[in-house]
Amino acid sequence: MVNEQDFINNLKRYDPRGTEFDDLSYINDVIKGNIRPITKRGLAPNEFTTVKLAGFEHINDDTVLNLFDVIPPGPKELERSRTHLVVGRYSQAIVLNILLKIKDKEYLVLQERHPLCFGFEKSTEVFRDYIPKNITINQWIEETFEKILEVSDNHEIIPTGYFWENTGVLGTNINSATVFINISAGKEKVLSMLNTEHLTNPDNVIGKRDLILIPLKDIESKDHYLTHLISIASLSILSRIRPSVDL
Amino acid sequence: MHLSDINAKLESLEIVLGDSAKPFVKNIQNVSDPVDIEGLYKVSIVTYSDKNNLLWEMPLKTVVVPIVLNNAGINYFLFVGQSRFVFGGKVSLEVNRGFVTDNNIDRSLYWESLVTRKVPYLLDYADIFKVVDMGWFYQHPDITNMKIPIQCVFAKTKYDMDIAELKKNLKAKHDYLNEPKYGPPLHNTEPVLKSFDEVNLRLHEIMFNTEKTKDEFYLNDLFSMTAIFKVFEYIKLNELPYGE
């Protein structure tokens, strides 16, 4: 077994630039809560070797830009070291399929937004948000949709795990769940109950959104309409589950 | 900031905020100069309604390539095992995906650019029967507008092999010298073969047995799940292209 300090000393012997290594404990203190901790230096040939935290910047309350100098798998040579970008987030994301049965007709609740990176073009997406860390998914759903659940005939929440957002740049995960709601109110009333202020302006992460109802059978593909990874993955999950009882 | 200055700064990120009549545009207060990170990312910070937003773009195009490999009458997905820095260096099992080495390659051939680089021995041991364009998706609509195509490769081994032999044959013998002039170094990848039944079981596990899988990075990334779902959807509607 190679000793970490010997490994570092050996690498530095051939480095005219005099690269300094950061302690992993220092790195983990800085990045705490926004990405996973770096559990090992990575001394084996097929591992990434962490050299240092080359940059750390809070973009906003939630998003962090972490830059690491790492030697990718292969020969352990400091000249192969590259800067690696890892975007971190403090909050927990959730994506939610909401399937409403209104008088025997099934609707999906989707959100319309104007994301900055689409040049403010309208994007139609599966409902997603961020949840506080000290609350369960079920509690959060019950509280967030309290109004509509109160008047529903019955409902069922099915948590469907989570997925990794992007294994290359983001190490964060997105919780996933589906809510089936059976409600006998009219479509317009349901829509107005959904478009309450706390849902349309949830926080400054998601930004303003409008909730819409689309008949399940009318889901179609067009530009910026359910075409992003999170929505597609979420709806694919929906296609594999049904409520346990007939709602 | 004037809109033309904003758009000039965001041009290299392929983001255009359009005309100044849009109600949102007037809320943009500042756009930082895009920063290039190793030729792989361009990052800019846009201050909008008093809040900083991170925008990034990858200058090299990327593609997701699910590979369905028929061997001895059984259909497998050919996945890849590779260590991921963001997972603390742990191995992640995923659908093959990555950068193409040259943005001038015809889009319909992105799959080839990836396969010849990441699974270089596939064509020695299998014939490709069909490549299906399964559309594209946006990676993450909040921080990038990258459009990523999914191109599924259907292949069949040239002769029946046992799985150990097939994996051994497909394993890339990396010398780490075949890095593109710019672009990411190749990971030390390991071919992973999973039958359709195994993949379906895994999807069920991801969705309903979450505690068990909490620290296993096995097909539970957004790219892999989306690609697998698309392939299964395709197979429901189309016959597999291997003939008799």
Explained architecture:
The complex is a heterodimer of chains A (247) and B (244). By secondary structure, chain A is of the alpha+beta class. Chain A has seven helices and nine strands, in the order ααββββββααββααβα. Chain A folds into two domains: 86 residues, no CATH class; 147 residues, Alpha-Beta Complex (Nucleoside Triphosphate Pyrophosphohydrolase). The longest helix of chain A is centred in the first third of the chain and has 10 residues. In chain B, the strands form three sheets. In chain B, strands 6, 7, 8, 10, 11, 12 and 13 form a seven-stranded mixed β-sheet that branches. In chain B, strands 1, 2, 3 and 4 form a four-stranded antiparallel β-sheet that branches. The radius of gyration of chain B is 21 Å and the shape is elongated. Chain B is an alpha+beta fold. Chain B folds into two domains: 55 residues, no CATH class; 176 residues, Nucleoside Triphosphate Pyrophosphohydrolase (Alpha-Beta Complex). At the A-B interface, strand 2, strand 3, strand 7, strand 8 and helix 7 of A face strand 3, strand 4, strand 10, strand 11 and helix 5 of B.
Q: Determine the CATH topology of the largest domain in chain B.
A: Nucleoside Triphosphate Pyrophosphohydrolase
Total individual domains of chain A:
2
Number of helices of chain B: 6
The major β-sheet of chain B equals:
7 strands, mixed
The CATH class of the largest domain in chain A turns out to be Alpha Beta
Q: DSSP strand (E) fraction of chain B?
A: 35-45%
Count of separate DSSP helical elements of chain A: 7
Q: How many strands in all of chain B?
A: 13
Multimeric organization: heterodimer
Which H/E pattern describes the elements of chain B? HEEEEEEEEEHHEEHEHEH
Mean pLDDT rating of chain A: 88
Features:
heterodimer; A: alpha+beta; Nucleoside Triphosphate Pyrophosphohydrolase; 3-stranded antiparallel sheet; 9 strands; 36% strand; B: 244 residues; alpha+beta; 2 domains; 4-stranded antiparallel sheet; elongated
